[in-house]
Amino acid sequence: MGKSVSDAPGEATTEGLWDAARTSASDLDRLLEEGTWSDEELSKALWLAAQWNQPKALESLLQHGAQDTNRHALGLSVKSLESLKLLLTAHKIDAKTANAGGHLLLHKVLGSGSEEVLRYFIENGVDLNLSYKGLTALHICAFHGWVSSTQALVEAGALTDIEATTSSYRATVGETPTMVAKRQIRVQGAANMDVAPWEEIERLLA
User: Fold this and answer.
1) Backbone dihedral region for residue 202 (phi beyond 0: left; psi -120 to 50: alpha; all else: beta)
2) Which of 25, 68, 75, 112 would bridge with 56, disulfide CB 3.0–4.6 Å?
3) Three-class SS of residue 191?
């Protein structure tokens, strides 16, 4: 470790660096200049800045040589288009094939990212039909009931008839997104849950 650990915010300690990455870009700039930090410390600060949606902190860390180990920060950056662009540019990653920790970045956007980021992916030619563990983006949306993402994908030309190639809790081999949505209507209905999102997804996929 480059510095001793302390809980005091704003101090030139490992915890101070990480706290500043989450909360204060100005404190972070000072700490980066004052301290000598290990690659591990900078890498964790980077993913904390991404997790807490701090694009200015991300930019400072990247300028000081922080590396996105295992693309963890990239996976967390899907909440903010500004943060995502910073990381894609800094590490020369093509948005069309981007992955994070083994997961397709497109699939991470669906559940935890913003609609603005999803539109960015669509506009930049990301293959909307790519599969991860046998499922496409539409399979995932159909399982979770994510209506707005389903609509954006369908309007952008995502194929609605691709069959799942592996079985999981989300889908079984051979199921299309429509079949997943229909199954969720039955499952959620049997549990007395509101099935409106899945009914709307079924309509969008028709």
Assistant:
1) alpha
2) 25
3) coil
Length of the chain equals 206
Residue with tokens 């069309």: 96
Strand ranges in the chain using DSSP code E only, listed in sequence order: 99-100, 103-104
pLDDT by residue, tens only, the chain of 206 residues: 454 434 444 568 999 999 999 999 899 999 999 889 999 999 999 999 999 999 999 999 999 999 998 888 998 999 899 999 999 999 888 877 777 766 788 988 887 768 899 999 999 899 999 998 999 999 999 999 999 999 999 999 999 999 999 999 999 999 999 999 999 999 999 999 999 999 999 999 99
87 phi and psi angles, rounded to 5 deg = -75, -40
* Secondary element (H or E) of residue 204: helix 196-205
